[in-house]
Amino acid sequence: MTGPGPATPLGIIAGRGALPRLVAEARAQAGLPYMIVGLDGFVGDWVHDHPHEIQAITAVRRILNALATAGCTHVTMAGGVERPVVNPLKLDGKALTWLPKLLPALRKGDDALLRTVRGLLEAEGLILIGADQIVPLTWAEDVPTRAKPSADNASDVAKAEAILAALAAHDVGQGAVVHRGLTLGIETLFGTDHMLEMIGQVRSDHGGVLVKRLKQGQDRAIDMPAIGPQTVENAVRAGLDGIVIEANGVLILDRDATVAAADEAGLFIWIKP
Amino acid sequence: MTGPGPATPLGIIAGRGALPRLVAEARAQAGLPYMIVGLDGFVGDWVHDHPHEIQAITAVRRILNALATAGCTHVTMAGGVERPVVNPLKLDGKALTWLPKLLPALRKGDDALLRTVRGLLEAEGLILIGADQIVPLTWAEDVPTRAKPSADNASDVAKAEAILAALAAHDVGQGAVVHRGLTLGIETLFGTDHMLEMIGQVRSDHGGVLVKRLKQGQDRAIDMPAIGPQTVENAVRAGLDGIVIEANGVLILDRDATVAAADEAGLFIWIKP
């Protein structure tokens, strides 16, 4: 499925990360119309290859106008907008009418905020579609690489998963690196690439696994962690044996290139339930 | 209390970290005899200011001989020896007789290992004393710096403590850095200084707290985390507002110098139950 039919352009409100790009590419490949409103400071450079406008996250009226002008009746919100620092003086009139509902939601965390924004957009007459409806993810367990995980790797994977599960309630922990039962890294705000780079700078030995999972409470209809060829390169520099991602919880960007890079380096990739 | 009386030199089997140094300094200041057996690759350079021998961790017979030659009947094991990589070919005869008991303990983790080593030393006729008996730690809640934590800091401290508590069962997490509810760093194998350095390299804003606590299951009679003037310097470079340490769980090295460095930088230090 790639969303509503060709008569209606799909509006894509695009934040950070890989998901909005995959949504746009799915529409383009299916030959279906779409219009991206990229959020300034969040959306990546990939957006310039697609029909798009860039708007500030505070310019709610302009965002709605852009969608209306393009004739969008259906909208997808895709990509993270992790707690933006918003200057209240920059909020436009429309945003100000939203504010009484947004402020309490802001204090409750990401999920409450997203539910509120969804309700406000629907009140504008827009029909919201989850990005996961346009880029369906139905991956079974798979090790697409030539290298396969060992029993030692599996034991480190179990430990990394236990750590991520323990952190789930604390809004942290999309990734962890474990080697021989020792925890080399736990992903924080600064992301996987930063964690891997730091490990590579300091360790002198070799081995271990990176495990990436959807953070508990993270809405896979809007934002998902991703790996790609760059992640493989960083994992190699960090001396790892392999990368483990949660099936249907973590995206692979450029899957063929990612698997090829892993094969060239002798790394395994394990898509794991 | 500074251990057994002047007639009997205290043997100090010294690993990594601050605790063995504090034990030696307490004995020296009390004018009581002592003899350090520093474990090669673990003990710090401070040992050269004290009566000492350096021995490999595998040279069990030599370690026991050094203690016997010095006339030690009482022994303290102080300082971490985090899972040393031991070449079995280097184990001496005595170590080999210990091996059948050590190997199963090694697989069970640090605590089981320490209990086993303690039992083996006691079987040699040595009386074991916890380092916490020689360097007593009885700190009440205190903010010894001019800067004091704010309500925002306290809320970040609570979050960092919750993260460390969640990780306690997984043998990781002596420290965490939180700012405005966002987790900037979680300490792993590579330690506090590394974590702070990495945060300083990547962040562009300012604020937040470092919280350090004794890792659950960590034996304060043998090993304790520590902060010192260097920690303050690293915290300043990481842009933090303050450092929070667990009373009776984390050592302050050179307390006067540490507080002075914090005061100069406007950082708070909070000794917290």
What's the CATH architecture name of the largest domain in chain A? 3-Layer(aba) Sandwich
Shape verdict of chain A: globular
Biggest sheet overview of chain A: 5 strands, parallel
What count of structural domains of chain A? 2
The CATH class of the largest domain in chain A: Alpha Beta
Pattern of helices and strands of chain A: EHEEHEHHEHHEEHEEHEEHE
Note the total helix count of chain A: 9
The average pLDDT value of chain A, as a whole number, equals 87
Beta-strand residue percentage of chain A? 15-25%
Number of strands of chain A: 12
Q: Which value, in Å, is the CA radius of gyration of chain A?
A: 20 Å
Domain LpxI N-terminal (chains A, B): 10-136
Domain LpxI C-terminal (chains A, B): 143-270
Pfam family, one (chains A, B): LpxI_C
Protein name (chains A, B): LpxI family protein
Provide structural commentary.
- The structure is a homodimer of 273-residue chains.
- By secondary structure, chain A is α/β, with parallel strands linked by helices.
- The first copy, chain A, folds into two domains: 10-134, 3-Layer(aba) Sandwich (Rossmann fold); 151-272, LpxI C-terminal catalytic domain (Cytidine Deaminase, domain 2, 3-Layer(aba) Sandwich).
- Helices cover 38% and strands 18% of the residues of chain A.
- The first copy, chain A, has nine helices and twelve strands.
- Chain A has helices spanning 19-29, 60-69, 93-108, 110-123, 131-134, 151-167, 191-202, 229-237, 255-265, and strands at residues 10-14, 34-39, 52-55, 74-78, 127-128, 175-179, 182-186, 209-212, 226-227, 242-246, 251-252, 268-272.
- A five-stranded parallel sheet of chain A has the order 3-2-1-4-5, with helices on both faces.
- The longest helix of chain A is centred in the middle third of the chain and has 17 residues, at 151-167.
- The A-B interface holds A 83, 159, 162-163, 166-167, 169-172, 181-186, 188-190, 194, 198-199, 202-203 and B 83, 159, 162-163, 166-167, 169-172, 181-186, 188-190, 194, 198-199, 202-203.
